[in-house]
Predict the 3D structure of the following.
Amino acid sequence: MTSSGQQISEWVEQTPFIDTHEHLIEESQRLSGVLDGGLSCDDWTYAVREYVARDLAVAGMPKNDLQSFLGPDLSSEAKYRLVAPYWDRIRHTGYAQAARYTLRGLYGEDDLTAESVQRIAEKYRETVQPGFYAAVLHRANIENCQVNSLQRIFMETEQPALLAQDLSILEFSRCSAADLTRVHTETGKQPTTLDDWLDIIDFYFATYGPRAVAVKCQIAYSRSLDFAPVAKAHAARLFLHHIGKMRHDLGSEDLKSLQDFLFRYCVGRATEYGLPVKLHTGVVGGHGMMQLARTRNNAADLCRLLLDFPETRFVLMHIGYPYEQEFIALAKHYPNAWIDMCWAWILNPAASVRFFKEFLLAASANKIFTFGGDYVAIEPVYGHACIARRGIAQALSELVAEGWIALEEAPGLIERIMRGNALRFFPTGQAEHGSRSADRVAVAARAGAS
């Protein structure tokens, strides 16, 4: 590493992240040991299961073996014997490398091996203690997280200073039977007309909008992001067929029209409350299910939304991978489009380095957020943050070496893209603390130049 590269790495390491996207469950739930069912259990596999399990499945691990590995019935040694052949196949992927950084940084183990697995199991249990969320984030040099809860439309978190919360608009926009059930469970309300449903949406915004950091929607998992204007009278008739007294299944075009109206209504409400709109774009989670044609069109589909809501700030998540070039174009062209690199660093670290370099040479530096772990468990956030820091340092070092950025410009840019943009953009109430990290980086820059 060159001296300038070493200096940039040091600046990146000492600058805290604002983490703009997680799905963390509450710490008290982790401490209770009652997790989210399915394939999970309260042992060391919970700390590495996310995303790694998907790579294991794609690498050929049989479904029953994967369930046993993630379940509660086997010893740690037996679990290792199951996973070892497939671990060797995926150890180089971003998902697995994040897990390995986590094992190293939190448990002091370089890798998952027959010798280390029992020590990892013991250290997992030692780590899961009151206050461990703050401890893990502190070790990762993360100031705070923004959480999109998968358990509630808005989570009344026990740690609001540490875990800022998104208000989910997925349930309001998608409007499935499961979404109505969740709303009924949370509020006791059961709509029969479109106006009833809009009243419920208004209730959530009025109740939680002032405390939310953004609204979030991952409807791209099930449909295109082309949201056309729809008259309210037409949407009201469709709602009666879909949910109300008439209860008939809608065809795909009619369902799209109803969702188009509801999503645009939510965007309007978010704008009134000054809340950015976070949208999932690009590759989808899971495995064996992605419709790549729809994913490919995400950027093009968003143009209408960006044009129709010029006062709304849209955060386009995951760099649209693997179609990231189009998202650089959106951020460069549209004043109301921002890009979030959450999840991207572990989807493909090399592609993310290239994306970050090209973004900085094409778009405004205030239009990007550079880290979000995208995890339910807190532990792998540490490993993902390590990969993101490495990628940011590599990209900036290459830009300096290539003469595109001067070394003396790097400290201010690092502060901006790792935390300053988020502090200035999101309504977190923490902007007054924004100068502290800038002061630290400026002092380091002066020391490095002297």
